[in-house]
Specification:
This protein is of the alpha+beta class. It has four helices and three strands; from the N terminus they run H-H-E-E-E-H-H. The chain has a domain at 13-36 and 47-102. Helices cover 34% and strands 23% of the residues. A three-stranded antiparallel sheet has the order 1-2-3. The longest helix has 16 residues, at 75-90. The relative contact order is 0.19.
């Protein structure tokens, strides 16, 4: 039985490194398609992310944005979006995907229930 959950823990999401996500995508049939650039007020162009995609059928492609820096304020949000896209594409739970990306086991502490008298 697979339990479907949504990972909302910002610290858990921030613990995923860009390299870990890129390696996971590369190992699972995703390809880097393009860089996302931003032009600063000074005119300097800077990398803000990468678009990775996977062909999931003859007509449809799925895309994931990988942020360029782990220090971006919206880093956890972007990782959450990436994991949601992987969940939809792979048909697996976010926890399974998280464990595969981080190679970290998850321990869920059981709740203690009081007996009702």
């Amino acid at each position: 039985m697979t339990i479907m959950v949504t990972i909302k823990d910002g610290n858990a999401l921030k613990s995923i490194t860009i390299k870990q996500l890129q390696e996971y995508l590369e190992n699972n049939g995703w390809s880097k398609r393009e860089d996302i650039m931003n032009t600063l007020a000074s005119g300097e162009r800077t990398l803000v992310g990468e678009v990775w995609s996977q062909d999931v059928g003859p007509v449809r492609k799925t895309a994931i944005v990988v942020p360029a820096k782990e220090t971006f304020a919206d880093y956890a949000i972007r990782l959450s979006e990436a994991i949601m896209a992987l969940e939809r594409t792979e048909g697996r739970s976010q926890l399974e995907i998280y464990v595969d990306i981080t190679q970290t086991s998850i321990y869920v502490k059981p709740k203690k229930y009081k007996k009702k008298s």
